[in-house]
Amino acid sequence: MRRVVFNQKGGVGKSTITCNLAAVNATEGKKTLVIDLDVQGNSSHYLLGDKVADPDATIAYFFREVLSLNLFGKGGNEGLGSVIHETPFANLYVIPSHPELEPLQGRLESRYKIYKLREVLDTLGDFDSIYIDTPPVLNFYSRSALIAADRCLIPFDCDAFSREALYTLLAVIAEMKTDHNSGLEVEGIVVNQFQGRANLPQQLVKELEDAGLPVLQTRLSTSVKVRESHSFSKPLVYLDSGHKMADEYRALHRELQGIQHD
Q1: Residue 156 phi, psi dihedral angles, 5° rounding
Q2: What domain range includes position 22?
Q3: Of 82, 94, 110, 154, which has the fewest Cβ atoms less than 10 A away?
C-alpha cells in the first residue's frame, strides 16, 4: 500500500497526519516507510529530530542520481538504500527531505523525470506500507507522489476557503488518475482540527457530506498535545498512547483499513 497525503493548501496537517498514521501502522507490526517530499521537511523533523543534515542521506540524493543517470548508486535500490533511515520507533523508517529539492525541481521537470519515484518504489519490496508527505502545492514532487501512490488522503481543516479549494483539488487528482496513474483512488477527506461544539465546522462538514464528497467518519480534534508531539519528535502513539488524539489516529487507521478491505 502506498498512500499519499495531499492538499494544495498549507497548514491543514499533512505532515502530522502522515507521521501519526504511519506510526499507528508501525505499532501493528508492519514495516512502514515515510517519504518526505516537502522541502520544509516537517515529517523528517517529526520522526528524526534534527539528526539529518547531509543531502546525500536524503531524498535529494535519489533525484540527483536520476539527473546524473547513475540510478544504481550507493546503497542499491536505485539510490534509495542509503537514504532510508531507521527512526527511534520499531518498524518505522523515513526518507528525509532536504532544501536541495528546491533547486533540483526545474531540471527534473525539464527532463520529464516524473515517473522515476514510482519506478524506484516498484523495486522496493521491503515495506508493508509507504506513506508519502507532499508539499502544499501542485509541483513536480506532489505530481510524482500522486503517480507513485495507489491511495490519496486529503486533509481538510474546516475552513471555508478549504471547502472551495476541495473541488479544484479533486479535479486535479482525477486528471492525474486519467493521464498518469489509473490505479490512484481517493480514500477520503479527513476532517482535521475539528471543533465539535462549534457551529461552523459542523456546518462545513455537513455541506461536504451533502454534496456527496467522500468525507471519512473519523474526526481529528485539536489539542496542544499535537504541538508537544512535534516538539519532542514523537508521534502521539509514542508520546502519550492513552491520549484522545492517539485514539483518534488509531480510529482513522482502522477506518482506512476497512476501506481497503471493501
Answers
A1: -135, 125
A2: 2-261
A3: 110
